[in-house]
Amino acid sequence: MPKDGERGAGGRVTLQTLADHLGVSRTTVSNAYSRPDQLTAKLRRRILKAAEELGYPGPHPAARSLRRGRAGAIGLVLTETLPYAFGDPYAVNFLQGIAAATEPAGVGLLLLPLSREDTTAEAITGAAVDGFCLFSLPDGHPALTAVLRRRLPVIVVDEPRSAGLPYVGIDDRAAFRSATEHVLDLGHRRIAVAAYRVRFDGHDGWADSARQAGATFPATRERLAGAREACGRAGVDWGSVPVTESAPNEHESGLRAGRRLLGLDPRPTAIVAMSDVLAFGVLEAARELGLRVPENVSVVGFDDVAAAAAADLTTIRQSGKEKAATAARYLLIGEGPESVLLPHELVVRGSTGPPA
Amino acid sequence: MPKDGERGAGGRVTLQTLADHLGVSRTTVSNAYSRPDQLTAKLRRRILKAAEELGYPGPHPAARSLRRGRAGAIGLVLTETLPYAFGDPYAVNFLQGIAAATEPAGVGLLLLPLSREDTTAEAITGAAVDGFCLFSLPDGHPALTAVLRRRLPVIVVDEPRSAGLPYVGIDDRAAFRSATEHVLDLGHRRIAVAAYRVRFDGHDGWADSARQAGATFPATRERLAGAREACGRAGVDWGSVPVTESAPNEHESGLRAGRRLLGLDPRPTAIVAMSDVLAFGVLEAARELGLRVPENVSVVGFDDVAAAAAADLTTIRQSGKEKAATAARYLLIGEGPESVLLPHELVVRGSTGPPA
DNA sequence: TTGTATGCGTTATCAG
DNA sequence: CTGATAACGCATACAA
Predict the structure, then answer these.
(1) Which of A127, B142, B297, B345 sits CB 3.0–4.6 Å from B317 for a disulfide?
(2) In terms of domains, do A293 and A192 share one?
(3) What is the CA radius of gyration of chain A?
(4) How far does B320 lie from chain A, in Å, by closest CA?
């Protein structure tokens, strides 16, 4: 009466093959891998040795995962395509933070970039993970639907804020307000804003009030609101403040933004940017035009990435790593409040000063 | 005669729940997801709608993977801990290249950093992937054993070269030889080498000939051999060439290397580094000492990362992206020769010149 | 300490 | 176009 174990010979090597070969039960072999305390060390060695000889690759991950109900990995959903994300220092900071948490926990990190919508949804649907971390997604992005459908633990970093999901970020409105106030306090009146993406359409150019109102990136929306509040308090007409929008978050984008802004007449005396990387581009634009910083133009960044200190850039400090650590802790051990706002801080350096 | 389908009510929502609810067979529901052409669009819509209502999250990835025999992801084994790897521009270039290939293919990218040996081996053993890409692993690292055990397609990038596995890299010996020849041709005779890691032990300091001989990183070994060859041809005694070793590949390491080398008496007039990042550190050390480049000291890098052009650094160009693309192609569609050496090229910029 | 029976949720095959 | 059946490889409760 051959049980199903007998078929082993022809196909691949499984637990059963090994058990048959050794004349023990499947359970024992399984235990050798998953519960070493359930058998003698000697028998275990014998089993592992036979496995080596027969070429048994160890428990099949999918089978084990199916049976155990856990995948042993978390999925990281990123706004941008991976090739780009790896180039963004703020995103990289965040990745480093996530990795620092998953790694010692022996939990895998599955990257799920949002490239084409179809393939992304499919990737999310099929991802063998125990939870998702959403990093900087615009409101209403289809990936969110796909993630929600999976009914797994989810945490949102930065955006979207709308979904009623556990959330970790900063008070973007207050942060950008303080950046704006900084230059207003220095006496600047002709200021301009170099915004990060307002909507998920790759637009690169002016963001008029209509576009600002239709922002689908909550962080951008909040930051603009913060700038408006600061202007209101200082008696500066928000309607007269030029706002330019850039995506993706890279040097070239900032350079274009800087050229646009610094080409205005009258020229702004201070530019508040929504990322350090954009600010670096603005600084280069200033250099191109022979403008001195901060004598001719003050520049404020956002994030305080490593290069900001080297570039002597005034900026708002926030910690991508800290966000990541918080998010990971939640996903890995379900710990922490459902939502948390991390601190931010204005770091004043040499790129800002009073107007000439 | 209730079949097992009837249990649906109490537990989670599966294909069967849905099938029972709709009065169709499991197969039909499965087809709605996996083979849309096997049923009418109308029925399919009805099924998908019911799924939405009942909260069916779609086919369980582990179950599907088990049944299909494919995981839909590839594993990337990295030498360094992730937090570090994301900070290394060469590694990031490589990651970008890998992502550029996996992403459109709808294949997941599972990151498997080598942190503690135990957890790494476990992660590799349990990784739900269809193949592995090994990036810059030292000879004899235990992770290699773990990967081999899985009996899945594997490709090696850069290192190790010893394993007889499909391989993609460059001719490290020739590349570093040409870097060394470049400064020798300029007339330098007191040269020094800022090597990348020689062994996987985190050593940071001088690498004497014994240590060089025991190199477990083949690329480093090859490059040193290339330098020696160049010296031999130019009549420079290799034994008199100081070699310092640095890890990890980051600015600080290069700075330390630079201080060590430039603190020698007599001071080298040319330093050949095994990465641009190390070279940047050396440049900073030179600046610290008030040395002018290339008047007082010439510096050569390796990799030609983006920042090299900005820093006007003479370097060896190799393409991490190209390597990645080749590796991914192999893993994804089994295409390409088993092993391939990609081209490299000396890029002469302003950081090298004749000795004073 | 070891073995037996069962089902995790899916899809391929093949018959209707 | 639809439905029944049989694995996929494993881990667990339970019995021995």
Answers:
(1) B345
(2) yes
(3) 27
(4) 12
